[in-house]
Structure formats: C-alpha cells, structure tokens
From TrEMBL:
It is an enzyme of class 2 (transferase). Keywords: ATP-binding, FAD, Flavoprotein, FMN, Kinase, Multifunctional enzyme, Nucleotide-binding, Nucleotidyltransferase, Transferase. Pathway: Cofactor biosynthesis; FAD biosynthesis; FAD from FMN: step 1/1; Cofactor biosynthesis; FMN biosynthesis; FMN from riboflavin (ATP route): step 1/1. One of its GO terms (biological process) is riboflavin biosynthetic process. This is Riboflavin biosynthesis protein. Belongs to the ribF family. SMART domains: Flavokinase. Gene3D superfamilies: HUPs, Riboflavin kinase-like. InterPro entries: FAD_synthase (IPR015864), Riboflavin_kinase (IPR023468), Riboflavin_kinase_bac (IPR002606), Riboflavin_kinase_bac/euk (IPR015865), Riboflavin_kinase_dom_sf (IPR023465), Rossmann-like_a/b/a_fold (IPR014729). It comes from Cerasibacillus quisquiliarum. The keyword Hydrolase does not apply. GO terms for molecular function: ATP binding; FMN adenylyltransferase activity; riboflavin kinase activity. Residues 185-311 form the Riboflavin kinase domain. It comes from the Bacteria.
C-alpha cells in the first residue's frame, strides 16, 4: 500500500495518478461499519480494474473546529490505521491534513480538488459522511458536485444489537471498560503499541514482574482497571494481565497514570523493546488494598481468573 500525505492545495498531477475507486471518511477505529465502506470500495475497484484507495483526514476535525480542544485521542492512531488498511489490501492511502483552509472549502471546491483532482472515478462513503464548509455537502446532495466525472455508492448504517456501530459508541464502551464489546464492534482485538520503560520494579518484589509501558499520548485508553490481555513480541503471543491506573495502594504513585503488564510465563529483560498489547476483557476496578499481602492475594486471584478466561476463550 502506498501512503500519500496531502495538504490543501496539493500539487499532485492527474497525469501521474491512476484511476481509482476510493472510500472516504475519518475512519477512527476502522470498525465493522467502516470496514463495510472500505470493502465495498475494494470490490468496486476490482470490478472496474482500478486501484482501490482510502481517503482519510488528520487530525480530527474537532481539533481545528473547536477552539477549546487542543488535541483528541484516537481509537486507531495513524500508524495502526495504516497497518489495518494494509492488511485489508487497500492499494493506496491518502491522508489529508485537516486545517482551517480545508474546513473553509465549499463542497464543490473539496470535490474538485480531492476527488476529481485525484482521478477518483467512484466514491464510496457511509450514509452520514459530510464534506465542505460546515458539512454542507453530503451523500444525499453529492450528485450536484460530480461534474459527471465520477459515480458514487452510499453505504447504509451497519448495526449490532439493533444499534448503529460507530466510533462514538466505541468511545462510550471504552469509558466503561467494556473492551470485549469493543472487540465485537471492531471485528478484532483493540490494540496499542507501547515501549517498555524502567519502572519502580515493585512488581518483581511482589512476585508479579511487570513491563511498564509508555504509550503515545494520542491513544484512547479504556477506563482504569485490571484487564486480560495478550502481548505480541518478536512474533510470539503471550497471555497476561494489565493494570491501568494509579496504583492507589502505593501513595507515591497515586496521581500518576501508568500501564503495567504482567506477562505470564515470561521473565526476560525487555527494557526498551516495543510490544503490541491486545485488550480482551475487563476483570475488575483498581483498588486500594490495606496491605501488600492483600494486594498479592488479589493478584494471584486475578491471574487465575485471566488464565481461566483465556482457556475458555480458546475452546
């Protein structure tokens, strides 16, 4: 997959671009609804003997349009978005920088520049996709802007349990810690990359050595608690338990959010290494224990619970 980053105005010449079928949207999470849009574009591209493309935007429009919002946290940051689209066999990815200039374009200007100007011959988008200044362009009025240069397909909403699958729904589930339901809506485990940092090494003293993970600030994390996780490291998969929180049993950590992972049956030095962490199930809230012994007893119970969870998950 070829990734092309664009700003307005871009300087790509139509002469060097292939005719393309493109899925367009922000696609945070690339959940099952997004996948339906992207898969439709891939199928259409094969039918038309063209390349498939995805057009997405960065940063999230709310960062530009809401003067009080400095940043936003993503279900799938750009790196993971690229990896997922690569696995879906998308031929090219256009990442358009969302800024004030882009937000000011009329629907026709947007279409002329980023659809017709990129030699896109068929557009696929969800029913609620909007474009142009204040979202005045949409999939109901897009025919006004095509200049007879491209056709389009509108994908209806995709539901689970009679409710629309959406990034907003996933965000609400993450706020509750319901990563199992999130995984159902994504069609894959929620995941993130983290680099192992040297920590207080307290877990080792407790009999539960942990990898203290540094993650990018723009990653949307679930609510604090204890989770069943899997760790992918050097082409191997390990089961484990993750603690996301402030370690309230230890006052010196009380206001510092940390993500620590105890990897089952693994005790090698991996400082500085990058891990891929997959979230599977919420086990319990984080707690402040009256003693270190009480904490150790709970951790032992957590490990038994999580090992049993993965044993049943396999079968």
């Amino acid at each position: 997959m070829r990734t092309i980053e664009l700003t307005y105005p871009h300087i790509l010449s139509e002469d060097c671009l292939p005719e393309t079928v493109a899925a367009i949207g922000f696609f945070d999470g690339i959940h099952k609804g997004h996948q339906e849009v992207i898969h439709t574009a891939i199928v259409k591209a094969k039918e038309k003997n063209m390349e498939s493309a995805v057009i997405t935007f960065h940063p999230h429009p709310s960062v530009v349009l809401n003067k009080h919002k400095k940043n936003v946290k993503y279900i799938t940051p750009i790196r993971q978005k690229q990896e997922i689209l690569q696995k879906m066999n998308v031929d090219r990815l256009y990442i358009i920088k969302f800024n004030k200039e882009l937000s000011s374009l009329s629907p026709q200007q947007f279409v002329d520049h980023f659809i017709i100007g990129l030699r896109i011959k068929h557009v696929v988008a969800g029913f609620d996709f909007t474009f142009g200044h204040k979202g005045s362009g949409n999939m109901e009025n897009i025919s006004k802007y095509t200049r007879k240069s491209f056709t389009y397909t509108t994908v209806s909403k995709v539901e689970s349990d009679e409710e629309k699958i959406s990034s907003t729904r996933i965000r609400h589930l993450l706020a509750r810690g319901d990563v199992a339901q999130v995984n159902q809506l994504l069609g894959r485990p929620l995941s993130l990359y983290g680099t192992v940092l040297s920590g207080a090494k307290r877990g080792r003293k407790l009999g539960f050595p942990t990898a203290n993970l540094k993650v990018d600030e723009d990653i949307l994390l679930p609510k604090p608690g204890i989770y069943a996780v899997r760790v992918l490291f050097k082409n191997r998969i390990y089961e484990g338990m993750a603690s996301l929180g402030t370690n309230p049993t230890f006052p010196e950590d009380e206001f510092r959010l940390s993500l620590e992972v105890h990897i089952f049956d693994y005790n090698q030095d991996i400082y500085g290494e990058e891990l891929l962490l997959e979230w599977y199930a919420y086990i319990r809230d984080e707690e402040k224990f009256p003693s270190v012994e009480a904490l150790i007893n709970q951790l032992e119970d957590d490990e038994k619970t999580i090992r049993a969870y993965f044993q049943s998950y396999k079968s």
